[in-house]
Amino acid sequence: MSMFGVLIYAAALLTSEGLLVQGPAQPLVAQLGGSIILPCSVETPLPMEELEVEWKRTDEEALVHLFQNGEDRPEAQHQSYRDRAHFFSEQIFKGNFSILLENITVADTGIYRCVVFSYQNVGEISVTIQHVERVVVTAEDQIVFALVGEDVVLNCMVDSHIPPQRIDEVSWKKVDKKPDIVLVLLFQNGSIFPESSHKRYRDRAEFFRQEIPKGNFSLRLKNVQTADKGEYMCEVHTENSVSSATVEIGRLGMSALHIITLMLCFISLLLTFVLSIPVTIYISKKGRPRIKYAFNSFFYCITIVN
Ligand SMILES: *[C@@H]1O[C@H](CO)[C@@H](O)[C@H](O)[C@H]1NC(C)=O
Ligand SMILES: *[C@@H]1O[C@H](CO)[C@@H](O)[C@H](O)[C@H]1NC(C)=O
Ligand SMILES: *[C@@H]1O[C@H](CO)[C@@H](O)[C@H](O)[C@H]1NC(C)=O
Ligand SMILES: *[C@@H]1O[C@H](CO)[C@@H](O)[C@H](O)[C@H]1NC(C)=O
After folding, report:
1. Which CATH code fits 3-133?
2. Domain map of the chain by residue range?
3. Cα–ligand 4 centroid distance for 113 (angstroms)
4. Does 76 sit in the ligand 4 pocket, CB within 6 Å?
5. I want to staple 41 with a disulfide (CB 3.0 to 4.6 A). Which of 96, 156, 254, 285 is the partner?
6. Which string of b and e fits 76-105 if b means at least 16 CB within 10 Å?
């Protein structure tokens, strides 16, 4: 040990105040799926020999990361932090023992301790991850009903602490016929892309432009058809996450026009059938195809209505 080293060592023993370790001034907020630096450092670099840095969760005594004998000790890490917590190896020599915690989950909320041992000295700080922000997507109604030919509104609210410009994408998709997922409407990088809608929805689907800054990504679907019945998903992508909510268009009621059309179908069936009776009687054997024709036209009628 050099003379200088002895002096420092002696001074540390004398003051017995331990190491002065610095951490963040405030609790931290992380983002779901993102990464965060948990700061921990000392003013002046510490000699590598005899240096030990231990990052722990206070609430569950799990070892987040360990630096010992001049190197990382990943094998000592608790399983839930393996490959997720890293020291900045270039920084350790400078007295910076911060760690990078990646792939944040809600379970990472909590208090962490950074304990630094150097010779006989110990110092520690605690770092709190107070909150893990995530995007919450809600649909006001689980199911909506409409009449054929009407417009319908599918609600989707994006509640996040993340500013709207950090929402990379919001897409409405029809998802009930998996794996055939149909794109209904797309919002990406701050713009609406109506031309990317599936042809079945082109010119029929729209956002409420003035509502988007409020996180209201409700969809208006115009001129609803029976084929529109089913499940729709409002999917929100941010840099680190994908969240979604679903809304169903339930059984479609029939408008007056449809009821009238259907009634006409019945009447035409009845007429064809009744008229075919005398034909069947007087021109024998030629009735059968006509009855078949009557039924065919009836079913055709029903298909059109639906
Ligand atoms: C972190 O997330 C990325 C992307 O989702 C994934 O590829 C990677 O395997 C994850 N790493 C860990 C350690 O979970
Ligand atoms: C420690 O290193 C990290 C990663 O390079 C850096 O973001 C942070 O500012 C450093 N802290 C100090 C106190 O230098
Ligand atoms: C939106 O931005 C991303 C990343 O910047 C890019 O990959 C993507 O092509 C953009 N989409 C459109 C439709 O411009
Ligand atoms: C979103 O906007 C639509 C259209 O203006 C409106 O009907 C709906 O109530 C709004 N949703 C919320 C939660 O404000």
Report:
1. 2.60.40.10
2. 3-133, 137-253, 256-305
3. 45
4. no
5. 96
6. ebeeebeebbbbeeeebeebbbbbebeebe
Q: What angle do CA 297, 300, 301 make, to 5 degrees?
A: 85
Options 1.10.10.10, 2.60.40.1120, 2.60.40.10, 3.30.590.10; CATH for 137-253 is 2.60.40.10
Q: How many residues does the chain have?
A: 306
The residue assigned the tokens 């029939």 is 254
How far, in whole angstroms, is CA 198 from its chain's centroid?
22
C-beta 153 within 6 A of ligand 4:
yes
For ligand 1, whether the C-beta of 204 sits within 6 Å is no
Closest residue to atom 7 of ligand 2, CA basis: 37
pLDDT by 10s per residue, the chain, length 306: 444 544 444 444 444 458 999 999 999 999 888 999 999 999 999 999 899 999 999 988 899 999 999 999 999 999 999 999 999 999 999 999 999 999 999 999 999 999 999 998 999 999 999 988 888 888 888 899 989 999 999 999 998 766 777 789 999 999 998 889 999 999 999 999 999 999 999 999 999 999 998 889 999 999 999 999 999 999 999 888 889 999 999 987 776 766 777 788 778 778 877 777 776 666 665 545 555 665 666 666 566 555
Ligand 3 centroid distance, CA of 188 (Å): 7
Pocket of ligand 2 (CB under 6 A): 37, 39, 41, 88, 91, 96, 98
Task: Confirm whether pTM is higher than 0.85.
Answer: no
Pocket probe mutation, ligand 4, options 216, 217, 220, 221, max atoms within 8 Å of Cβ:
216
Distance CA 88, CA 91 (A): 5
Intrachain domains 3-133 and 137-253 with the same fold: yes
